[in-house]
Amino acid sequence: MPLTSSTNGSSRESDQRLGWEATHESRRIVAADGTGIAYEVLGRGDKTIVLSNGLGGRLYAWTPAIEAFWSDYRIITWDYRGLFASESPKSKRKLSVANHVDDIMAILAAEKVERAVFCGWSMGVQISLDVAASFPDKIAGLVLLNGTHGHVLSTGFQPFVSIPFLPRRLHALLEWLQDHEEVAQHIARATRLAEIPMWLGMRLTAGARASELTPLLARYMDDVLGPSFTNYLRLFQELDAHSTYHLLRHIDAPTLIIAGMLDVLTPPYQSAQMARRMPHAEYIRLWRSSHFSMLERPEVVIPAMRRFLDERAAF
Fold first, then answer.
1. Smallest Cα–Cα separation from 76: which of 106, 47, 50?
2. CA-closest candidate to residue 313, choices 257, 258, 255
3. CA-based nearest residue to 121, from 294, 2, 242
4. Phi (first) and psi of residue 19, to 5 degrees
5. pLDDT tens digit string along 98-154?
6. φ, ψ for residue 116 (rounded to 5)?
7. Sheet holding 73-78: strands in order across?
């Protein structure tokens, strides 16, 4: 039974006046293994969109989609176990993609959702694909942004070609940092300097909107480099251990795949592979976009999502 804390007004008139914030509620469930999972519900539609976050992003990373769709859809998102308001499991083995899939299935059961469109960004692409492969009857459609089908360390930060020895080296680094938390925290603080080149990159991809995105970028860095940092490192390893490549040809759900051609974290050739293997996939390449296509290019992403929801989603 979810525990609900609500800060919204009760009337439709209040919803119109205050926007989606008036419909927002924070809730919790307890997963089968006893881990407390935090999730959020907003919107007032009868149809449901599930937002599967990236590794580090939260509700704010979906702002353009929330503002576009909250009045027509119910929107659900959750904090992955081990991150933010969700608890860490007793065993690190319980941070696997399969556990995140079980968590969202438990949330949908608590919310009495029979079918939903899953929108995944980055890490959320792998989770959404796993849900579609494991529970096809729950999927009304897939919107997959800036992600991959699996084995992220084999392709991440390798925009043109996969480097054979790099995954093992990255695993070794991630494990060393997990074993030396004080050093990891120092590195996390130093990594805040990455905000400067990221902002400069957004000047190229988002143009004048880059200044508006500066607070969101700072919050994203706070999330990634905050108290959950060691779990964040472990989750990278879990994402590398996971793959749905062999299952893509069996995922029949209508699918919209969006890739940023300047994305070095999840290079666009991964999205192209998914589109070729999935029987009902539409593929959109954004030449002036990196790993944050939703925020950088909402003038393209949101109309594409709207067409998909109106014409292809099978609620």
1. 50
2. 255
3. 294
4. 80, -160
5. 999 999 999 999 999 999 999 999 999 999 999 999 999 999 999 999 999 999 998
6. -150, 155
7. 3-6, 25-30, 36-43, 73-78, 47-52, 116-121, 139-145, 255-260, 281-286
Is the Cβ–Cβ distance between 280 and 314 less than 8 Å? no
β-strand 281-286 against 255-260: which pairing, if any?
Answer: parallel
**Structural domain contains residue 99:** yes
Which residue, chain included where needed, has tokens 């927002």? 24
Residue 48 lies in a domain: yes
User: Is residue 305 a part of any domain in this protein?
Assistant: yes
Q: In terms of DSSP H, where are the helices of the chain?
A: 12-18, 63-69, 97-110, 123-134, 166-179, 181-191, 195-205, 210-224, 229-241, 268-277, 293-296, 298-311
Q: How far apart are alpha carbons 247 and 237 in whole angstroms?
A: 21
Residue 39 has phi, psi (to 5 degrees) of -145, 165
Burial 206-242 (b: 16+ CB within 10 A, else e): beeebeebeebbeebbebbbeebbbbbbbbbbbbbeb
Characterise 225 by phi-psi region: left (phi > 0), alpha (psi -120 to 50), beta (else): alpha
Cβ distance 260 to 293 under 8 Å? yes
pLDDT band at residue 156 using 50, 70 and 90 as cut-offs? confident
Q: Count the domains in the chain.
A: 1
pTM of structure: 0.90
Range(s) of the domain holding residue 88: 3-162+242-311
Question: What's the CATH code of the domain at 75?
Answer: 3.40.50.1820
Does 301 map to a domain? yes
What are the pLDDT digits (tens) for 116-131?
999 999 999 999 999 9
